Amino acid sequence: MVCLDTTFLIDVINRRVKLENLKSRFNNENVFIPSPVIVELSRGLHLKSNLKNIRSGEKEKIESILSLFNTLDFGKEEAMLAGKIEAELNNAGELIDFTDILIGAICLINSETLITKNKKHFEKISGLKTESY
């Protein structure tokens, strides 16, 4: 089972990656989207600095792609782990974006591999399995 990072979905939206490539490797029931990825996509749609880059129909395209996969939500167990991860990274001077910590915690709790372009970035989270695409 795998989780899709925001980078993968953005590349699908921008036609740099085809969903067919993913479907040939994994069955749709085994592919998930961590809920913080949805936060990142929504934030991208609404940031003033991004508005000039948002194309007509992009929100609908995102919603359509999101509807293809099940979501893994952020709950109490994930929250406890995310707090621990953030503290460990902070103590080591290795902080990453907090949303990425949430994504990592969800993947760890659910024993998922994260499909991402930012493999080196996520490797700072101990025990998180990542795969580049």
Chain-wise SSE layout:
Elements: E1 2-4, H1 6-13, H2 19-25, E2 31-34, H3 35-46, H4 58-66, E3 70-72, H5 76-91, H6 98-109, E4 113-115, H7 119-122, E5 129-131
Parallel strand pairs: 1-2, 1-4, 2-3, 4-5
What are its keywords?
Rossmann fold; 7 helices; 5 strands; 51% helix; 133 residues
Structure description:
By secondary structure, the protein is an alpha/beta fold. The chain has one domain: Rossmann fold, CATH 3.40.50. Helices cover 51% and strands 12% of the residues. It has seven helices and five strands, in the order βααβααβααβαβ. It has a five-stranded parallel sheet. β4, α7 (119-122) and β5 form a beta-alpha-beta unit. α3 (35-46) runs antiparallel to α4 and α5 packs across α6. The relative contact order is 0.20.
